[in-house]
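Quiz preparation item.
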């Protein structure tokens, strides 16, 4: 069983929105491809539907990755099922639908790890609800060790820890969004075990300092050999990539 805190190998190779170079992002097809490619874990993004279902999609609007229009939260799950989430990528993926988080767990639990990025929007009146729903699903599948909850919005991570202290969490850090704030201090304030940094932000000193503070470090999104070499030299613990098969090939 995969564990975010005690993995079998370092660095952990995480398929960013699934193997999103070879299949439409955040679909069951992309997650199946990630498993076929040998990824250790998948990363995905979640929002709530109008009727409170946890669904897997990156944007809070439908236009970029489906043939629907409007805000995700304005549709019920049944209504969202009417849209294709794969046609934009290639016609052979036309039948792909927006998956629920439960469907993803049913597909991958026990085989690879899952990183759930909880998207934060100011329009959401009940941010606590999506955190609670995610933790309910994690609990139902008894997957606490194999699931990492992450967010750019560190109060969501604090909330997750208050609901269930056993949650493994990661702070997503962005130098613009978190301008002049220490990534390590923010991660510790969130009680996170992981600090997740953009490729452009990675420095060996940051990784070393994070390790000194008992933080594991992940980096997103590594798709080139040049960046792979740089982040490996820095000593990161997990690598997020759109193309895990390629990264694994070079690591071998």
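Solution:
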């Amino acid at each position: 069983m995969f564990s975010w805190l005690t993995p079998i190998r370092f660095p952990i190779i995480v398929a960013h929105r699934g193997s999103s170079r070879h299949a439409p992002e955040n679909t069951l097809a992309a997650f199946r491809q990630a498993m076929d490619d040998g990824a250790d874990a998948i990363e995905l993004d979640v929002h709530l539907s109008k009727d409170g279902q946890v669904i897997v999609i990156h944007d809070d609007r439908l236009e970029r990755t489906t043939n629907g229009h409007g805000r995700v939260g304005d549709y019920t799950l049944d209504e969202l099922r009417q849209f294709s989430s794969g046609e934009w990528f290639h016609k052979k993926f036309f039948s792909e639908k927006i998956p629920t988080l439960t469907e993803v767990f049913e597909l991958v639990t026990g085989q690879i790890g899952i990183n759930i990025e909880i998207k934060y929007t100011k329009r959401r009146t009940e941010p606590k609800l999506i955190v609670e729903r995610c933790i309910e699903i994690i609990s139902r599948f008894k997957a606490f060790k194999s699931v990492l909850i992450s967010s750019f919005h560190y109060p969501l991570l604090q909330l997750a820890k208050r609901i269930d202290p056993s949650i493994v969490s990661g702070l997503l850090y962005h130098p613009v969004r978190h301008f002049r704030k220490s990534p390590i201090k923010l991660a510790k304030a969130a009680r996170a075990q992981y600090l997740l940094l953009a490729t452009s932000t990675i420095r060996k000193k940051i990784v070393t300092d994070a390790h000194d503070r008992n933080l594991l470090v992940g980096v997103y999104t590594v798709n080139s050999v040049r960046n792979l070499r740089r982040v490996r030299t820095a000593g990161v613990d997990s690598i997020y990539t759109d193309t895990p098969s390629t990264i694994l090939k070079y690591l071998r």
